[in-house]
Amino acid sequence: MGIQQFRLPDVGEGLVEAEIVSWKVKPGDTVKLNDTIVEIETAKSLVELPVPFAGVVKELLVPEGETVDVGTPIIAVETDSPAEALADDMVPTVPEPAEETSGRTAVLVGYGPKTTEAKRRARKPAGPAPVAAAAPPLAPAPEPVVAKSNEQAGSVHVLAKPPVRKLAKDLGIDLGAVTASGPGGIITRADVEGHVAAPVAPAYEAAPVVSAQGDTRVPVKGVQKVMAQAMVASAFTAPHVTEWITVDVSATMELVERLKGDKAFRDLRVSPLLIVAKAVTLAARRTPVINAAWDEQAQEIVYKGAVNLGIAAATPRGLIVPNIKSADSLILPDLCRALNDLVATAREGKTQPADQAGGSFTITNVGVFGVDAGTPIINPGEAAILAFGAVRKQPWVVDDEIVPRWITTLALSFDHRLIDGEKGSTFLADVAGILEDPARALMF
User: Which residues contact 417 (CB under 8 A, 6 or more apart)?
Assistant: First the structure.
């Protein structure tokens, strides 16, 4: 008999911590290999973790609601024999100092565990958490980087992983002044946070605080924190230009009604968003720079080989942008099915990090909230985003007569570093033209 501890793995790209949302087992339960034991919340999604060995649960090492670092033991399981111990290559371990900038240690899901002791924070009251599915393996996290202290350049080398280095930069802290507690002199996230807290009064756990005036403070974390950082980075990096066009989409609305009765769309929800999505993929053929990205480091424009169409989705956990891979290669029924699946998965809170990565163009459907238009912020890593406004019956001039028509407004924000006014206007006009006359799609 032996007691094995399962450590929190990295289930995302450079995950450094996660919150224990709910345990699926309790002490005394028997678990089999790959049984789901816990649901965690990362900065991108909810993920269910499987246990990598069989045995009897002896202890839950982290209570629900607490946030812990990657590599922290979260559960102890008694196995039948030492032979069932967790394999070395499945446990987040600390690399030897000589290997700090080379070599990797694989973990249960993904790579790159954070090599620190846990710093736990009490969970703040929140709404009910949605159910999530297990996440697929993702890209490796960054390795520790050797850099020089700003104050002691040329004399002292500071070891810290990129996420820790960024945290210090955001807080205005010189890493050379931080005391390292990690193996081999690595500065950890806890070291940086402890350095900030040191000069002040006794530390306390952040929690929603209600003042006498009724104000409530809620810490920013998870999806909302990531969204905020991404939007700030995009807004202050890419020079945004936004153009609008008001369109008579009566023909599109008629097409939607016809498709609802088509057997190819049986059991599918057909909406105007489907035609907008198709129009975007078609118009991108004529203006491919719309589906490109600006590579600042390489000073190159990267033209994407496929349209990975993102759909902005508001969820209880915050705004996410899952995308449909190679949407431009899908026929209309398949695109409709992909849209249905994307929306349903987002509403259930099951969207995984891999489904949110690699987008090349985004549509935000503000019309579902009754909003006519807006100036959307470009999703980082993309060149443009289209806001689709509410479709309303309005008076419209047709052949010099005022008649009621279905009208909507489209707003396109684009990165003016690579998309000039002509390209942005051409793309927007093409999308509008297809919605005004769907038969025009035959021209693309």
Answer: 238, 239, 294
Is residue 99 over pLDDT 90? no
Dihedral of CA atoms 383, 384, 385, 388 in degrees, nearest 10, equals -160
3-state secondary structure of 242: strand
Interval 154-183 mean pLDDT: 69
Res 118 pLDDT > 60: no
What order do you get walking across the sheet with 36-41 strand by strand?
A: 46-50, 36-41, 17-23, 67-69
Per-residue tokens: 188: 């950890």
> Cβ(135)–Cβ(118) under 8 Å?
no
- Per-residue CA distances from 63 to 45, 121, 424 (Å): 19, 11, 51
Instruction: Calculate the CA 352 to chain-centre distance.
Output: 8
5: DSSP letter: E
For residues 373-409, one letter each, b for 16 or more C-beta atoms within 10 angstroms of the residue's C-beta and e for the rest, the string is: bbebbbbbbbbbbbbbbbbeeeeeeeeeeeeebbbbb
**Separation CA 314–CA 16 (nearest Å):** 25
Q: Of 297, 291, 274, give the one whose Cα is nearest residue 384.
A: 291
- pLDDT band at residue 94 using 50, 70 and 90 as cut-offs: very low
Say whether 157 is catalytic: no
Other C-beta atoms lying within 10 Å of the C-beta of residue 260:
13
Q: What is the DSSP letter of 354?
A: H
pLDDT at 191: 77
| pLDDT tens column, 238-291 | 899 999 999 999 999 999 999 999 999 999 999 999 999 999 999 999 999 999
Q: Which two three-digit tokens encode residue 430?
A: 């093409």
Q: Where are the alpha helices (DSSP H) in 188-248?
A: 189-197, 222-235
Nearest in space to 24 (alpha carbons), one of 2, 61, 49, 52: 49
DSSP for residue 45: -
* Comparison of pLDDT for 171 and 243, the residue scoring more: 243
Is the Cβ–Cβ distance between 376 and 215 less than 8 Å?
no
User: Any idea how long the chain is?
Assistant: 444
Structure tokens at 276: 């907008």
- Tokens for 418, please give them: 């690579």
Contact 55, 4 (CB under 8 A): yes
Q: How far apart are CA 415 and CA 288, in angstroms?
A: 14
Q: Which of 21-35, 198-212, 244-258 has the lowest mean pLDDT?
A: 198-212
Q: Burial, 81: exposed, middle or buried (Cβ in 10 Å; 0-12, 13-18, 19+)?
A: exposed
Which residues, in sequence order, are CB contacts of 443 under 8 Å at separation 6+? none
Question: What are the structure tokens assigned to 280, written together?
Answer: 């975007």
Contact 131, 22 (CB under 8 A): no
